[in-house]
Amino acid sequence: xxxxxxxxxxLGEDGGVVIQVTLLPYAALRIVKLGSDGxxxxxxxxxxxxxxxxxxxxAFEAPSGGCELPLTCGALGxxxxxxCTCPPLFAASQDGGCAPSDGSVVASSCNNGSSSxxxxxxxxxxxxxxxGVAYYANKFAAPDLAGQNISSCQALCSGNCSCLGYFYVDSxxxxxxxxxxxxxxxxxxxxxxxxxxLGYIKVQRSSESSQGSSSSKSSNSxxxxxxxxxxxxxxxxxxxxxxxxxxxxxxxxxxxxxANDRDMQLRRQRSPSxxxxxxxxxxxxxxxxxIVIPGLPTRFTHEEIEDMTNSFRIKIGAGGFGAVxxxxxxxxxxxxVKKIEGVGTQGKREFCTEIAVIGxxxxxxxxxxxxxxxxxxxxxxxxEYMNRGSLDRSLFLRPTGGPPPLLEWKERVDVAVGAARGLxxxxxxxxxxxxxxxxxxxxxxxxxxxxVKIADFGLAKLLTPEQSGLFTTMRGTRGYLAPExxxxxxxxxxxxxxxxxxxxxxxxxxxxxxxSSSGGTTGSGSSKSDYFPLAALEGYxxxxxxxxxxPRLEGKVVAKEVERVVKVAxxxxxxxxxxxxxxxxxxxxxxxxxxxxxxxxxxxxxxxLYGRGCAGSGAGGGGSSDxxxxxxxxxxxxxxxGMTTLTTxxxxxxxxxxxxxxxxx
Length: 665
Prior knowledge:
The structure is a single chain. The protein is of the alpha+beta class and 665 residues long. The protein has 4 domains: 2-62, no CATH class; 78-206, no CATH class; 298-384, Phosphorylase Kinase, domain 1 (2-Layer Sandwich); 404-605, Transferase(Phosphotransferase) domain 1 (Transferase(Phosphotransferase), domain 1), CATH 1.10.510.10. Strand 15 (163-169) and strand 16 form a beta hairpin. 34% of the residues are buried. ATP binds at residue 339.
């Protein structure tokens, strides 16, 4: 399959176009998705100007009708304009679909092309589906026999044990065989063509010899009952006793575990409210030991987790969600095991429900969840292993241990495009839209072969409010938080776009946006502040982009690509979320398949306030710059007394300045 701005093309084995679907108008970005309902959908994202969000136009959907899907009405069901029903002489089946109403059994396929035996043919009959009934697959298949009468068509089916029925078109003398598996039928009012289509299904009926033998068997039924009854009773007693023993053993095990959890609770000296919550969660977990939720990945015991990590011996990272350890599965594949700390009031069932959603998300730029563990209050996640670690280890200078291997410019562009694709899939490609809430270099993982994957998506719901930082409604990391976190504005996918813009600037410069070193001069005229987003804004205004690139690259960059990445980053940093592009548009601009937006300088003025705050307050932030930033967020009509309250409370643990929050870290 090949997709471009003009349409969708299906290619044959020789590379030639077999089917062409022209889609108008021209679109720079199209997304093809095969849905769980069996339909293929093509969405088009039309390029828009900087003041409006991109539009998703449903450009194409196939098949257009639900009756053309294999099992719309179940096996042997009939799809009509009014809905699903059964053909004549058929009735609804308890297993779904339809079955012959005379009690005969639909023939089974032998799954090969061998001829059936004559004895089998004597027991085979054909049940008529009536006139005007077609089969969903016949529209896409060539006739198995042409130019012959209906008797020849039936003989062809009878001589093939994999044939389950046949359809005959009287007007064209065409014969179609249904082999291996039966799907749904289509009424002539729905399908193309007239009512000259005849359908027959192969069924098996009981022979006279079997009916005669049944009478002789009934005479011996009393003897069989006398022999089998004691055996059945003994077997039932054994099963009951075994079930009682197993149930008693499980209850005893649960009591011991509950006692251990209570002892742990006392040692931690929890408050009364927390103790009540913990005991309730323990009871909930005991009741949910056998949770079955569709879509759950592999479930490991804590003992298995300890074995695969060698008792958590090799720690490879730590973050806001907990520590990460290196492990190895029994099949030899490496994994990363994350200990989730502080799952709040969530019970095991709620936790497993969230994990089922995360585990069903599959994309080449998203880290795959291999399994999980939920025992008592323990919550662990098992991810695929990325051997190069997080982006910050390859991009930023290390405090100790020497500089990291230098990321070349092409690698940085590939990282930007790969991470953008992963976020775009979270926002637009999933059945459940997911906002990451913590986009930063530490959550972008690298592996050999140029693999780039987003990590920790979907985990924000698993944390307690206290783990979100000093503001209980916030998720994320200081320095990457969008300005809307300061207000009551809704948090949308454009919040992730802001954080991604900060990551793009760090990719360009090769250091954190707020650096404590004296190397803040960029050559663009900004030597008073080492806040790089401000330097990038000034470089954009001066038209000097190449000087913004990482000096360690020694000019080995593509100037046009540096300009493109900087412009995309500044568009992502617009203070008004509605002016920021979606991640789908960001992907198109980074790849060069969509028109490049021009940043709106008037919506980036807050970067100058952040930059002056850095220059005036040093590494600590705060001071008078905090008041300016708060006034900027509140507007001229803001509550001055509220501003004074925030300023006087700067000594409290719950206080954090605007510069510290959305500005540099």
